[in-house]
Design brief:
Layout (H helix, E strand, L loop, with lengths): L1 H6 L4 H21 L12 E4 L13 E6 L4 E6 L5 E7 L20 H8 L2 E6 L5 E7 L8 H4 L5 H6 L3 H5 L3
Antiparallel strand pairs: 1-2, 2-3, 3-4, 4-6, 5-6
Helix pairs in contact: 2-3
């Protein structure tokens, strides 16, 4: 993926974001989604794909699809240089939505990370029983770094940590 994206002149910072996004999407598909139906996975392996953009209106650009039968991952670069990464699975009991985990929670931050990195993202229903989460990462439109795009914990969430309590005994 990295080499193909570099050939398409995608900046390294966008490739790094795309790798993180793809990792989060695949993790969510494995944890929350059902496998694709075997009849939908006939094109296993790497293949060239000039597939549609997230809203189905762009068939230009370069890209690739990997389908292992359980989940399908794809990426493409459109003519404007935007990178779209998407993962399709067999759906799950709920729709993917960003969570509001507690500060001490071990998970639940993936879609918030994706939202912070993305120009746009969403969920679409494809063939019956298939759900795709797509993420658009724009090249060249990033004027800030990741840390400034992620909200800090709220005062209420920070209070849950109770940092002050252990230090009160020292005074």
């Amino acid at each position: 993926m990295r080499d193909e994206l570099r050939i398409s002149r995608v900046p390294d910072s966008v490739i790094d974001d795309a790798v993180l996004v793809l990792s989060e999407l695949l993790s969510n598909a494995c944890r929350h989604g059902r496998p694709l139906r075997s009849s939908n996975s006939g094109n296993s392996g790497n293949s060239s794909n000039n597939g549609s953009s997230h809203n189905g209106d762009n068939r230009n650009g370069s890209g690739a699809t990997v389908d292992d039968g359980d989940v399908r991952a794809a990426w493409r670069v459109d003519d404007a240089g935007r990178l779209t990464v998407e993962v399709t699975d067999g759906g799950g009991p709920t729709r993917p939505v960003p969570a509001t985990p507690s500060v001490t929670a071990r998970g639940g931050r993936g879609l918030n990370i994706i939202k912070a990195l993305a120009e746009d993202w969403g969920v679409r229903d494809d063939a019956p029983g298939e759900v795709t989460v797509w993420v658009v990462i724009a090249a060249g439109n990033r004027h800030d770094d990741f840390a400034t795009r992620v909200a800090s914990p709220s005062a209420i969430a920070a209070a849950e940590l109770q940092f002050a309590d252990p230090f009160e005994d020292l005074s």
